[in-house]
Fold these 2 entries.
Entry 1:
Amino acid sequence: MAEEKTNKEKEQVEETEVKENTAQENDKAAEEDKKSKKAKGKKENKKSKKDNTDEKIEALGNELIDLKDKHIRLQAEFDNYRKRTMKEKMELIKTGGETVLVNILPVIDDFERALIAFSEMKDDDPLKQGITLIYSKFQEFLKQNNIQEIEAKEKEFDTDLHEAVTKIPAPKEELKGKVVDVIQKGYVMNEKVIRFSKVVIGE
């Protein structure tokens, strides 16, 4: 009887141990499953974050390309503006006093007419000397301002330099189509015509 009781207790202990082991194994499996799910979730989270980062990098890269392009365009526009401004400034310096100088030219014409009128006078005549001196100073003034007389007499007629007043029969065969006489001298300033030569053409 005592032996039977001992066997029964033994079976109960063994059954309890099996149950405990099964419960432990179940808990362990549940914990591992939980860990696995957590790890999977972290992995997916990481992947999602990585995708977002890649998108941001791509967006920033595109923005940088746009900014570079805008910068290059702006630099080119500024360079063109600077060159244009410098050119305009140079033109202004070159032709700044053009109006004043053009208005002086008729005075020089008058001095030349006076010299022609005084041509028969003696060279030591004070009036002739005075006129010649003033005329020489005017000539020097024109030279300093890069103003040059246009050579016209017996030259080929050029519409860029000459203005035809009239035509007359050419005194010589070789003067046909050329300038026979100059009515009013023309002048250029820095290679720009500030007054056309008024001329007579031979035909």
Entry 2:
Amino acid sequence: MLKTLRQIASVGIVTEPPPRADASLRVREGLQEHLRAVLGRALCIRHIDAGSCNGCELEIHALSNPIYNLEGLGIRFVASPRHADLLLVTGPVSKHMAIALRRTYEATPDPKLVVALGDCGCTGGIFGESYASCGRVSNVIPVDVAVPGCPPTPTRILEGILAAIAHVSVKRPGAVPATADQSGTTEP
């Protein structure tokens, strides 16, 4: 034990310093006001796993931790597509999930937004189109924003959600037009 403590004392701290804060990633300022102006309330998201490996789901769950604090931004997940404004779809769409995905899309009130997550959701990934897979999400339902990555980082997922919100004024008549300054992000 004493030998280990001496080695620790002689080597010192070997970790790298933390990275500098990137002001361009700051989205909290004015986001709630922007959501209320565009939607009139919080953004409600329904997540759909259409056949993924759960890598994207782990990153989606990270959005609810204290670092990203999605609820604090005025964005929340709901259990029913009837309460959702945005569908967050992960994975290549398996043949068995195609009907469920279409029904969920149809149950979501208009105007609806769809964000496809991960390489599998955007392009079909390594699975592509086959006897068991329909491939990318856009082969089954219309997609507004595609967020590539295997899996995409929580920051990238949040940027994709904000990119979808930025274009909601086009779909929702009478909504306040969004600008990049209000959302704090650019399109993925």
